[in-house]
Amino acid sequence: MTKVSRKQIMEIYNSMLNSDGITTEGDVVLDMQDAVDTLIFRWNKCLELNPGIAKEKTFLTRISQIAKEGIHYLQDFMEARK
After folding, report:
1. pLDDT for 29-81, tens place per residue?
2. 28, 38, 29: which is closest to 6 by C-alpha?
3. Smaller CB count within 10 Å for the chain: N or C?
4. Closest among 25, 31, 45 to 2, alpha carbons compared
């Protein structure tokens, strides 16, 4: 997995705003990779900061629904592009 710094993402965004409208595949891939990295970071941080809540059955049920929503979105995304 490629790690992308926030600075690199901001440089891409800024170049997109000030460009001639051409966005490269690499620009989009970097942006999507950052979205995944951010999701993982935030979920890990939430769990790290709230270990008691993370063990609750109701929490796990609710988080399972959120995870399923994300998984379904990604599956639909990939299926639509086959």
Report:
1. 988 999 999 999 999 999 999 999 999 999 999 999 999 999 999 999 999 99
2. 38
3. C
4. 31
